């Protein structure tokens, strides 16, 4: 405290000078209109600058929160844009896919459009999951097709989802025929290239050419006849030399598979059952 008092006494003349200066400026600006207006204008400019700097500083420190809000908004808008694009692009594609399948499947067969929700290509026993189940009328052993060709056979059915054994599965075994020739064999996939499969057991006396179409034979209750399977690329002899083995390029692109239809085969099952009954009756005579 003594040091403070000594300091004030030592520099008291300076404090007195500053006080008198302040009083002088106040008197000048308060009782003179011109000087008062100059002071008022200058003060406003200075205060405005101070407010401007303060506003910029506050804005700078609030940028983090603003950026966070903008990021959240952008994510929301991206999600809305994706949904809109799916509505604009996905629905017509699905409708077009169903129309193409409808042109291939006989009119007496029902078809159930479905979406592929999971799919694999790199395994020996690949599986596909679709978003339709027993609640939608799907049953085990129904055929599954795309707009380009066959996909596989329903293997397991839940209430809202089903598992499909596709052509790209070592256990798949679908009856096929060469279009316009009547010779039939069995479609099998041996792994590797998802676009290549083989038709086994084509008779040696069969006549055909490379590039011909291979379609479903209709000899089972799974697929109606005439559904596209693929085109012949090469011809090999079977290991025992008694038949041909056809290498075909599959019509269905499993890597881009999104929309499929499940074929209701109840009508075909009824016809095959009647045929078996007639055959059994003829054998009994």
TrEMBL record:
Q: Identify the domain of life.
A: Bacteria
Q: Name one GO biological process term.
A: regulation of cell shape
Q: Per the UniProt record, which residue ranges are transmembrane?
A: 12-31
The Rod shape-determining protein MreC beta-barrel core domain covers which part of the protein?
116-263
The name this protein goes by in its record = Cell shape-determining protein MreC
Q: Which family does it belong to?
A: Belongs to the MreC family.
Q: Does the keyword Transmembrane apply?
A: yes
The record's listing under Pfam families reads: MreC (PF04085)
Q: Name one GO cellular component term.
A: plasma membrane
């Amino acid at each position: 405290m003594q040091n403070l008092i000594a300091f004030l006494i030592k520099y008291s003349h300076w404090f007195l000078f500053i006080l008198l200066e302040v009083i002088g400026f106040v008197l000048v600006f308060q009782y003179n209109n011109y000087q008062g207006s100059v002071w008022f204008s200058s003060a406003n400019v200075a205060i405005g600058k101070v407010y401007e700097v303060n506003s910029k500083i506050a804005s700078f420190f609030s940028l983090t929160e603003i950026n966070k809000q903008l990021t959240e908004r952008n994510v929301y808008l991206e999600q809305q844009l994706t949904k809109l694009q799916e509505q604009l692009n996905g629905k017509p594609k699905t409708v077009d896919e169903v129309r193409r399948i409808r042109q291939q499947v006989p009119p007496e067969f029902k078809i159930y459009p479905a979406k592929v929700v999971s799919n694999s290509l790199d395994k020996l026993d690949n599986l596909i999951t679709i978003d339709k189940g027993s609640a939608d009328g799907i049953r085990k052993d129904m055929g599954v097709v795309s707009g380009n060709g066959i996909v596989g056979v329903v293997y397991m059915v839940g209430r809202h989802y089903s598992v499909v054994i596709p052509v790209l599965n070592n256990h798949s075994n679908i009856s096929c025929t060469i279009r316009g020739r009547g010779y039939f064999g069995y479609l099998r996939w041996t792994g590797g290239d998802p676009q290549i499969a083989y038709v086994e057991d084509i008779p040696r006396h069969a006549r055909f050419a490379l590039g011909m179409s291979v379609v479903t034979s209709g000899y089972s209750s799974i697929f109606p006849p005439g559904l596209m399977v693929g085109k012949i690329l090469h011809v090999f002899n079977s290991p025992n030399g008694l038949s041909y083995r056809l290498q075909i390029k599959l019509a269905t692109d499993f890597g881009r598979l999104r929309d499929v239809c499940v074929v209701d085969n109840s009508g075909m099952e009824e016809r095959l059952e009647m045929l078996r009954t007639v055959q059994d009756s003829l054998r009994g005579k």
